[in-house]
Amino acid sequence: MRWLRARRDLQRLAQSDAVFISYAKAGRTWTRVMISRLYQTKYGLPDSIVIDGDSLHRLNTKVPRMLFTMGNYIADRYPVTSLPSPYTDHKVIFLARHPADTAVSFYFHLRNRVNPNLKDVKQVADAEGARDIFDHLQNSPRGLRHVIQYMNDWAIALGHCPHNLLLRYEDLRADPVPQLRRIAAFLGDDFTESQFRDAADFASFAKLKEKERENFFATSKLQARDTANPDSFKVRRGKVGGYVDYLTPEQTAWVEATIARDLNPVFGYSSAGPTVAG
Question: Which of 156, 169, 230, 252 has its CA at 20 to 30 Å from residue 239's CA atom?
């Protein structure tokens, strides 16, 4: 099954004008909604349809075809740091998030959103959802070290992609509009200031959670598994530095030391925790 998904994603990559890559739960879907909203308002497209390959391109060919992915299935065929790379000739946007926030958010995803029928395909063991948070961070195959290795691999891979843009989740959360301007310029598109502000407002976390509750979007990726359980929502908390809320000071110290020691500094994270660029 994974090889079929790898073939599918490679085909979608070949047909895309740009690819947006991040680890799971790093803010990819949220950013996708904002990018989609820019094109929806510019070209009068349905606001319930988000970019997914050519989903908006079919409605207006001026909208780029974009693949949003973690890249894990493609990596089965082409390891991220290997050459030749299937990404080299594409515009590549990479979204980074503080690895501890990413790993904690992914922990809740494993417990509340992974389809049991897809655990084998996604290589997720049943025991993963039974761990406590620090055990997940420290010992899970999908824990903190896995997130760090993923980011380090992509720090290398971006060097093989001449057309790349590195974003940080924390900068988007602090003020989405300047980052949306960077994305638009990278894609070669122009939008008005009111369109940028509208996109940020449309995808605010409060509004996005309400839209998810109402099944507003025409995709299961933005639908809550259980509306009575806030941790089952695709849009959960999105809090910068929220990982510390689940850890003791000693556990937090281990997390910060691990990141300071092992994570490529290109991403701008340090033992002081997630920061926001000025």
Answer: 156
